[in-house]
Amino acid sequence: MIHENDPRPWQVEQSEYIHNLPWFTVRKDAIRMENGGTIPNYFVFEYPSWINVVAVTTDNQLVLIRQYRHAIAGIHYELCAGVVDPNEEPLVAAQRELLEETGFGGGQWELLMTLSANPGTHSNVTYAYLATGVELKQAQHLESTEEITVHIVSHERAREIINTGEMMQSLHLAPLLKYLLNRMGGPAGFSDLSEQA
């Protein structure tokens, strides 16, 4: 939604790539603002689109994963997630990643929300999908750089995971929280049920 008094988009006067590798592409822009202000060195991180999946099984359990994350040197719960390949539709990427990482597939799919890791620095978005009625279809099919364990948890356990800080990835917390809030009838319902968990 656009508001009448919204700030104006910035003008890029000059742009150059500082670094250009698949997982670390940084662009430097020289910016001129509508009010006359300038930012000579504005850095933007370019990534492909990302996806993640809130997956609910046919018996109403949630499919979560755990893996080591080197930057914070920790292992936490996460949603299944991944990168959208070039010329790939986000929904196709989400279905592919869920099947590869967890072995679960099928069900009914819908876009739950679209997120930015940080709109001040990141150029990409994350498409978060809700997949209901998924079933175990195959064994995991992991890449050599992936070490992922699959965990089937109840909704009550998912609330406990959130409340105890066992999930750290904010792009995963947001869609899971939205799903739980919608399922329970809004923030008051989530608060009441989380106290009972």
From TrEMBL:
GO-annotated molecular function: hydrolase activity
Record field: catalytic activity: GDP-alpha-D-mannose + H2O = alpha-D-mannose 1-phosphate + GMP + 2 H(+)
Needed co-factor(s): Mg(2+)
Keyword Hydrolase: yes
Record keywords: Hydrolase
Keyword Hydrolase assigned: yes
InterPro entries per UniProt: NUDIX_hydrolase-like_dom_sf, NUDIX_hydrolase_CS, NUDIX_hydrolase_dom
Domain of life according to the entry: Bacteria
Name under which the protein is recorded: GDP-mannose pyrophosphatase
Source species: Spirosoma fluviale
